[in-house]
Write a structure and sequence with these properties.
Largest sheet: 7 strands, parallel
Number of helices: 21
CATH topology of the largest domain: Rossmann fold
CATH architecture of the largest domain: 3-Layer(aba) Sandwich
Radius of gyration: 28 Å
Mean pLDDT: 81
Shape: globular
Distance between the termini: 59 Å
Length: 587
């Protein structure tokens, strides 16, 4: 495994070296230095975070493979030959990332005459096929579109000298394994294969073992260093006040750019509309948008017309937004890896970033376990109150108006003298303050969650996966009026009602009801339903009351004090049982 000792760009291809100098690249980043240090023709398995400079890193590796290392080396070329079948293939999980990689490589290879084209979903495939037919040196694309061009004969991989899989772990998570394997098997066996991934889970290790030859493992970012420039806050809330908490967080921190994560497209639409209604300049990104709408939203963020982006995980992959100082997890990440990926959109290129998790009060233990798994230290604190925001506004308004006063001209002073003729200076300045204050969204009044109330706050507990995981002894026994072997009493409409419990802590008929879309026809049984509820809802068996198994659905009663947190938790997608849906029964 290679480290990342600092090496100068002097070992890079001269054309790329000049391009880097023009962009004020003085020294390589950790991942760039590690790639330069590796042997030129060795496959690489690189773990590097988004924002670490990996696009330039694999650009440097491609130049060494395709053009040679230095003018003194045998086979060295100053520029590419006439374009024909592609020489290098770069595969990315999303079209936004593919377009970003294209922009980076375009300036990096500008002096070498490289022709770089993209093939991504959402764009005109006929135009892409035409561009490929004219000849190309480097192709950047998404797995599905590349496989489509390959199967139609528009894309030939016969002359490929190098393949790059960028954010390989994301592509596996998104279900692109078969497409990746098809592309790798279509390329010559003697190619160079570079795998870049934020983490190296088992799936990536297997892919590397199968398609790479004696790959050099590069850890460009140490486990503790990847969070070095990111400060983490965890904000407990009353579940129904999530949107209000997001409003106050955006107002208090007032970052030039903020990225807010939701779990679903509907969640993005709802939260973006809520923020826009309150006066924030918002852009929404989700999978249902057309490519034109996505490009328009991204441009609004880049040119400052929008300062808040609300997005799903998929839509936000590969985004490189300027001045992104704040990431808010409005919906909790599914796991530690997603937490790291989301938060890594801020704190880039040495800049300080802030990542905030909005934590429904009942999900605190789940978040503590996730933070521990990700090796992240977070400060637990209350969301900013309306008073906190007003105090902060005073300081910012003073600085803002002082800056305005520094830029006045004679025409402005002439109007000021007219106003001062019949108005006191205090009144005029106060009117200006009110005008500037009213341009800001109003803060929201928040309820202090039970875990943060004085005298009730619990000290953080060390996460214990064994303790929190439902075990066989945790599963409550079904208690029936007619004995353990149980002939069950008839429920409504002649259905069986199973698993009614009267244990201490159970709701005793006072709880909130939820439905599960499986019933007796699909062998629903409390023996596996109870562990499912504990895992999906992040609760214990003591919060579960009656369980009524009907023909096509199951009704479950949840204790009132756990119902809101349970409702929030079950919104998270469940990869283990994706076809089982749990919904709250409306009053």
């Amino acid at each position: 495994m290679l480290g990342c000792a600092a090496l100068p760009f002097s070992t890079a291809h001269p054309g790329l070296r000049r391009a880097l100098a023009a962009r004020n690249y003085a020294e390589p980043t950790a991942v760039q230095a590690a790639v330069l240090e590796a042997e030129p023709d060795r496959d690489l398995l690189v773990s590097a975070q988004t924002g670490s400079g990996k696009t330039v890193a694999f650009g440097l590796a491609l130049a060494r493979r395709l053009l040679g290392e230095s003018p003194d080396a045998e086979g060295y070329k100053e520029r590419f030959d006439a374009p024909g079948a592609p020489r290098a293939l770069i595969v990315t999980p999303t079209r936004e990332l593919a377009q970003q990689v294209h922009r980076e490589l375009a300036w990096l290879f500008a002096e070498t005459g490289a022709r770089v084209e993209t093939c991504v979903g959402g764009m005109d495939p006929r135009r892409e096929a035409h561009q490929l037919s004219r000849g190309v040196h480097i192709v950047v694309g998404t797995p599905g579109r590349l496989v489509d061009h390959l199967s139609r004969g528009a894309l030939s991989l016969a002359r490929i000298d190098a393949v790059v899989l960028d954010e390989a772990d994301e592509m596996l998570d998104m279900g692109f394994r078969e497409d990746l394997e098809q592309l790798l098997e279509a390329a010559p066996e003697d190619r160079l294969t570079l795998l870049f991934s934020a983490t190296i889970p088992n799936g990536i290790a297997q892919l590397a073992k199968r398609y790479q030859k004696k790959a050099v493992r590069i850890a460009a970012t140490a486990e503790g260093d990847r969070h070095r420039d990111i400060e983490y806050h965890a904000i407990p809330i009353v579940p129904r006040q999530r949107d209000l908490a997001v409003v106050n967080l955006l107002r208090y921190h007032d970052a030039p750019g903020a990225l807010v994560f939701c779990q679903t497209r509907d969640g993005v639409t709802h939260l973006a509309a809520n923020l826009a209604e309150r006066g924030f300049s918002v852009a929404a990104l989700s999978g249902e948008l057309s490519q034109r709408e996505r490009n328009s939203a991204l441009q609004a963020l880049r040119d400052g017309r929008a300062r808040v982006c609300v997005a799903t995980d998929v839509a936000a992959r590969g985004l490189d937004l300027p001045d992104l100082g704040l990431v808010i997890h409005a919906d909790l990440p599914q796991n530690a890896q997603t937490l790291v990926h989301r938060s890594g959109r801020t704190g880039r290129a040495g800049k300080h970033g802030l990542a905030i998790l909005v934590v429904p009060d009942g999900a605190r233990r789940y978040v503590e376990r996730m933070l521990s798994t990700a090796h992240v230290q977070a400060q637990w604190k209350l969301a900013p109150s309306s008073d906190d925001i007003r105090v902060r506004d005073q300081d910012q308004l003073v600085l803002e108006i002082r800056a305005l006063a520094d830029a006045v001209n004679d025409d402005d002073r002439a109007v000021a003298r007219l106003l001062l003729a019949d108005r006191a200076p205090d009144d005029l300045v106060a009117a200006l303050v009110r005008l500037r204050r009213e341009a800001r969204p109003a803060p929201e009044e928040l309820v202090v969650p039970p875990s943060m109330q004085r005298g009730r706050a619990e000290p953080p507990r060390r996460p214990d996966a064994r303790r929190d995981r439902p075990t066989r002894s945790d599963h409550p026994r079904s208690e029936h009026p007619r004995g353990e072997r149980g002939e069950h009493p008839r429920g409504e409409r002649g259905e069986h009602s199973r698993g009614e419990r009267g244990e201490r802590g159970a709701p005793h008929g006072r709880g909130v009801w939820f439905t599960i879309n499986v019933g007796r026809s699909k062998n629903a049984d409390p023996k596996w339903i109870i562990p499912l509820l504990c895992r999906r809802g992040d609760i214990t068996k003591r919060s579960i009351g009656k369980i009524q198994v009907l023909t096509r659905e199951t009704r479950v009663e949840i204790a009132p004090d756990a119902a809101d947190a349970f409702a929030e938790a079950i919104r998270r997608p469940d990869p283990k049982d994706p076809k089982i849906h749990i919904e709250r029964v409306e009053d």
